Amino acid sequence: MKEIIINGIGCMLGKDAINPDRKTIVFVHGAGGSHRLWTVQVEHLSRKYNAVAINLPGHGLGRAQGETTIEGYVKAVRDLIEGLGVQKVVLAGASMGGAITQQFALTYPEKLIAIILFNTGARMKVMPEIFDLIKKDFKTFATMTPAEYTFAKTTPREIIASFIEEAVKRDPDVVYSDYQACNTFNLLDRVAEIKLPCLIFSGAEDKLTVPKFQDFLHEKIAGSRLIRFENAGHALNLEKPEEVNKAIDEFLSSLPK
Questions:
Q1: Alpha carbon distance 95, 4 (integer Å)
Q2: pLDDT digits (tens, 9 = 90+) for 48-75
Q3: pLDDT at position 1, please?
Q4: Radius of gyration of the chain from its Cα atoms, rounded to whole angstroms
Q5: Thinking of the domain 2-253, which architecture would CATH place it in?
Q6: Which residues contact 54 (CB under 8 A, 6 or more apart)?
Q7: Is 182:126 a contact under the CB 8 Å cutoff?
Q8: 52 has which bridge partners?
């Protein structure tokens, strides 16, 4: 595993160099997250593919200034993909990263083979109290939210603890802007325009982007496949890593280069 900066954008690579003969998958984290939340996926998938996890601007590696809109983050993903030197990628995003992935699919479809959407929606309104808590007591927000809302009840405590350990490292202002970007995101009337192969992951116990959000995406994106995991919440790539990795591998294997 290697952390580097490409075109000013931080990322984690599963291998030292991109192999042009392999498919490339780029993972995009959610609000207040980082590339390290995809470590298990990058490590596993790099055995067969070019596996890359972006660190969005302001999230600890690469550009220090975060963005305030989903479109701003889309441009950062574009810069990374262009720096990788590949023609097309599979783009996989969780939560806010899923919003970025949807917007990227509508803006730069020519750069994509397919998309994977984790625990996201075509619209992502944020509760006003979230903004208040980030401003008034970020540490409580970063430690309380995962335990209360992000994970299923059966998730091992050590997984939640590792998530919180990463969350508290973020700049509160960047996290606030992330949630602002989510709050203004709305593709309800446009998501059906996505014409790419699409795999959708959903956690049955997701309290932040509830399962009906993924049902809507599945209904609107023609030919999409929906996989719902029981005993999983909003961070199912951490909660169900083996099952998620297997499903991604099967999906990637079914795609043309």
A1: 24
A2: 999 999 999 999 999 999 999 999 999 9
A3: 87
A4: 17
A5: 3-Layer(aba) Sandwich (3.40)
A6: 9, 10, 11, 26, 27, 28, 29, 35, 76, 77, 80
A7: yes
A8: 13, 26
